[in-house]
Amino acid sequence: MLAYLHTSQSVTLLVTMADTTVGAERSAMTPAIVALAHTHELADFVAETIGQAGGRPVIVASLDAWVHALDRYFPVLALLDLDISGNWRSALRRCKLRPHTRPIPICAFGGRLDDATRQAAQAAGADAVWSHRTLGAELAARVKVSMEPPVVYPDGWDDNLTPDAIAGLRAFNRGEYYEQHEHLEHAWMAEMRPIRALYQGVLQVGVAFYQIQQGNWAGALKMFRRGLPRLRGLPPVCQGIDLAVFRAAAEAIHAEVTALGPERLAEFDQRRFPRIKFVDGNQP
User: Fold this and answer.
1) Are residues 115 and 182 in the same domain?
2) Which of 40, 52, 79, 273 could form a disulfide with 35 if both were Cys (CB 3.0 to 4.6 A apart)?
3) Are 55 and 103 members of one domain?
4) pTM of the prediction?
């Protein structure tokens, strides 16, 4: 069932009823998929498809609400109906120009879809454009991939950590989140292969923890939302690191901090910051 809610910015959202119940904390851990549809019938279909795939549908009622929801929910996928009234080109560009929402894949769809509209949507930032006729098949497949992205094994994933990376991870495990940045940045800049995303992702999660310590809610979210996408899709064990466990812990903290908001950030128990562990049980 869908229900209208009003956010603090007076933006109307359609969200699942689970978000308004005692199950809100558990719901917040379910990856969100934000969608804007121009009819209630289409919104119901999209929400049902997302829900059947195990996702958390967040169905919005306007372009402003769609842009706001990408900030608020940090979805694994965003869907945009091109038949909606308003400047959808501007909304697409806004989301693709900002660093913290740029990684979110956006799929657009429309019933009145011609070549010019398709090209305009792609030029504005849509990663895929579907017709209403193919929406059903395309949406179900894309939701599944977004919920469980395929594991990628980049060159170097099974190499040993570099000395700079080891120094950074040791600082990280001592809770020196400011200091770990320098070491991991050196490791990231020296590594030219795609595996450099591992160093940059851990670095940015560490900076997010530092921002929590400083009471900077917006800064923490910004760094989480830059770092976590870099770790998604990497192997569960990467250069000896138990990355799957670390990533899950960091994603849980991101979800909790997002729900707390800036006013309640101090309630977060910083003793829950995870240590980075190796699969053989040794510490870096």
Assistant:
1) no
2) 79
3) yes
4) 0.79
